[in-house]
Amino acid sequence: MSETLLKVSNIETFYGPIQAIRGVSIEVKQGSIVTVLGANGAGKTTILRTISGVLDAERGEVSFQGQDIGGLTPDRVMRQGICHSPEGREIFPFLSVAENLMMGSFTRSDKDEIARDLEMCYGYFPRLKERAAQRAGQLSGGEQQMLAISRALMGRPKLLLLDEPSLGLSPLLVTQIFEIVKRINRERGVAILLVEQNAHIALKTADYGYVLEVGRIVMEDSCAALMEKDDIKEFYLGQKDSGARGHRRWKKKKLWR
Amino acid sequence: MDDAARLLQLVVNGAASGCIYGLIAFGFVLIYKATEMVNFAQGDIMMLGAFVAYSFIHQFGLNYWVGFGLAILVTALFGFLLDAIVLRRVIGQPQFAVVMLTLGLAFIFRAGAGLAWTYDSVGFNTPFTNKTVNLGGLVLGQDNVSILVGTLVLCGVLYLFFSRTRLGVAMQAASQNQLAAYYMGIPVRRIFSLIWAISAGVAAVAAVLLAPVSMIDVNMGFLGIKAFAAAVLGGFGSIPGAVIGGVIVGVVEQLSGYFLPPGFQDVTSNIVLLAVLILRPEGLFGKTIRKRV
Ligand SMILES: Nc1ncnc2c1ncn2[C@@H]1O[C@H](COP(=O)(O)OP(=O)(O)OP(=O)(O)O)[C@@H](O)[C@H]1O
Ligand SMILES: [Mg+2]
Question: A28-56+71-81+157-257, what's its fold?
């Protein structure tokens, strides 16, 4: 099959004395969408930060296109072709929408291509075009999310890291954004590593998924297969009644390890 | 009639020295917005810029404009290295450490300038020294007018730089959200050093503009205190506010020197500073939206 783009091997990441990631391995193949599911505090954001170089893994390796990128600073990682749409959007509040997008293409000098990519982003999210001159801090949460994704796209990523794009959005907007995520993947051939709590939409969008619990991967499979698993149905898709949850969760967790 | 002319002259003189405060205040605010550090050595960087210009123009006998340009470049490079070598290491330390460090640096700069140049007052000739310009009957010193024009031109250039160029916008971006700037591939550390370079370069411009009206000596950096008042008046986060704050401090200072008993002029800036902190701590142009970090 297709080549491996990103390979995360057995990373362990700490916040001071607190170990957030306890030996995680993830692979993203060229042109695929991979998702990492997990509850609050499971360590999803920490994995993305480690890939981006904001945090350094104490142990383990991160390689991109066969090259070790573990020790690089975040700006160098981005220049390798990994763009990050972070948790909380992190837009530049006092810059206009257009300037935010311009910052997404900071590292590029191919003017015509940049202009074309800008039109592409405006095509995906016409709302941004209408508000191009407006301060980004004045956008609604959903619009800021569109901006964060578009800004990352403006860097022409080979791999796009998306941290909970569904957070705080209406169900309709979530559906729309994930349709666009799929289109970005199909039309531009961009590989995507998607971190989500909304397992429904993530499993529908991605090709392959990992389930993360307290810093460890407890399950991985193709998304089609994951959707059929009882544990996933129960804990992440919420398809069983809640009465038996606590007890069963304990049992199942034991099975996973 | 005479009184009106005299008043106008006072205002022009005040605005001219106010521009100098404003340019130093600009450096305070630019660095603060980017790195949350208050650089108390800003006035003394101006003093170094003045001595560098003195060397080029007086000691080496270079053309005024060539010396001006070189002084900006050398001082900017000094600012860049100062950040890259020294201040980068204290980012994230408590404010107190930063304050002590920059106050200490200011002390070192004064001693260094005294040793490298002189503890005496010196000066150099400029095209504007001891000349006047007649604006429809109003006679003004070219020295003061050159300060006003120079500041206006510089502000225009800086405005265009920060709003129109990719690097300028990236500096704004890095000041607003450092982490996101990193994610965009912006080399944030180098950008911060460049911000120090610009602040120092602007201080050098202030120093050269000031040359026709003031002698150069190791203690001239103390006018940084007035600049600090200007920055606070402007809201300590607004760049246009800093420059306008400087002009206000300068004009109030001149007028109080004229209308109030002797001695008041020197403390005006302190009074302005206190008044702002008590009455309107967010400054005249302060924003109610705080930046997110
Ligand atoms: N800056 C920090 N300092 C200390 N501990 C942190 C920090 N950020 C996260 N943690 C801890 O690391 C663990 C993983 O956090 P992380 O943000 O990666 O979770 P997450 O899976 O992204 O959660 P969510 O779905 O809520 O975003 C949590 O236990 C959290 O408390
Ligand atoms: Mg998270």
Answer: Rossmann fold (3.40.50)
